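Lab notebook: predicted structure, single chain.

Context: the supervisor wants predicted structures on file for every construct in the current expression panel, including those that have not yet been purified. This is the next one on the list. No modifications to the sequence; it matches the entry in the shared construct table.
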Amino acid sequence: MYWLRHPKPTPDGEEIPPTPMSVIREALAELDRIDLGLWEEERGYMVRVNRAGEIYVGPADESVPVGGQLPLENLDLIEPFESEAGIRGPDLFAPRSRLRIIASKLAGAPHLLRTRLETEALASIATRGIETRKIFDLYPSFDRKAIEQALDLEAQLARNLEPLAVAA
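Prediction complete. Output recorded below exactly as produced.
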């Protein structure tokens, strides 16, 4: 929502205007109506916005707008983004190669791929001073690279709070 409600720079420096809430609500209703299964274990769908701020939804290779045709130049709303405040948002489906965010699993909390182990739980252990190698020992059957990625994601999310704290 943050990204949609603020201007967005394209890679070539052009600015995409904020998307009005009425358009966001219409897109959410369309997603609900067509039941795309947007948040499955493997990504097959996209939510995109074009340079005019119009929202498009559909399969990754053929997203269609709410009531129109997909333009060639558009941005995927699920991909990582960077805000003017220095916040770096992760990919909202696969924040890392071995992590997933699925709305119907763990209430949308980031977790290790094909598990129910939340990244926040691992970060909570780490913030208590437990070394990464000891976390590996606590979860010996889990992928070590996925645990490292979980800790990295949570560190990124914590860094995102820093500019907001300064602004307040």
